[in-house]
Amino acid sequence: MPSEAAGFTVTVQGTDVELHQSGKPVGDEDGKRLWEGIEADVFGAGGLSTGSSGMYSIYHCTDASPPGCFHFDAWSCQVSVLELATRVRSVLDRLQLADAEIAVNVKSNEAVAATLIKPRDPAQHYATHARYDPSGARHSRDDGSGACRADSECVGEGSNHCTAWYLVGGGETAIALVHDEPWFCGCVAQRCTWFTQ
Q1: pLDDT band at 114 (very low <50, low <70, confident <90, very high)
Q2: Maximum average pLDDT range among 93-102, 129-138, 140-149, 151-160
Q3: How far is Cα 68 from Cα 19, in angstroms, rounded to an integer?
Q4: Does residue 142 surpass a pLDDT of 60?
Q5: What pTM, to 2 d.p., does this model score?
Q6: Do the beta carbons of residue 185 and residue 125 sit within 8 Å?
């Protein structure tokens, strides 16, 4: 982990990372503009699951006033600390708040997920029955979503969707699909997708 990113001091405490910049305390009006900019430019670019401003939240920072305090839950497989810091820096520069006192607390969702994801074979589609061959070639059906590093990061059991664990959620139309050959949900070319062997 770097000790500096885009002009912010970076500190790590367990699974949390803090970006901090000393400067002028942020007032309420600037805090409102800053949160609107972060919602549009930081969240708009993806990779974050939740976030809040100290102005509108129960979360507070010990090293910045509420208008300059932010909490994010991030998917580090999608957005790095440097990328997140660069996005926040861009908003500060655009709003002419580059000298503001800012604290951004980031919790990595992978820290929790890593304890839930165990190595395993790819999930088989509910409509097919076959034995997975670990040494067999994989032929992607190009029908899935989400970045991955291992089969265990892909979820497809009882579903028509093969999706990275961090994208799971929402509804699914109850349509039963039938395939003429066994389909498996796993990681192919660093992307969760259905594949055949």
Answers
A1: very low
A2: 93-102
A3: 12
A4: yes
A5: 0.58
A6: yes
What H or E segment, with its residue span, contains residue 71?
strand 69-74
Calpha distance 142→192 (Å, rounded): 9
Query: What is the rounded distance in angstroms from the CA atom of residue 48 to the CA atom of residue 111?
Result: 14
Number of H helices, E strands in the chain: 3, 12
Q: pLDDT-based confidence at 77, cuts 50/70/90? A: low
Q: How far is CA 54 from CA 18, 38, 58, in A?
A: 14, 13, 7
Please name which of 22, 31, 6, 170 lies closest in space to residue 101, comparing C-alpha atoms: 22
- Among 15-29, 96-110, 112-126, the minimum mean pLDDT is found in 112-126
Q: How far is CA 52 from the centre of its chain?
A: 15
Which has more pLDDT, 122 or 86? 86
Angle between helices 81-94 and 28-37 (to 10 degrees): 130
In order, the DSSP letters of 5-43 are: ETTEEEEEETTEEEEEE-SBPPPHHHHHHHHHHIIIIII
- What is the C-alpha separation between 3 and 52, in angstroms, rounded? 24
Which pair of structure tokens corresponds to residue 185?
């949900």
Q: Can you list the alpha helix ranges (DSSP code H) found in 95-159?
A: 110-116
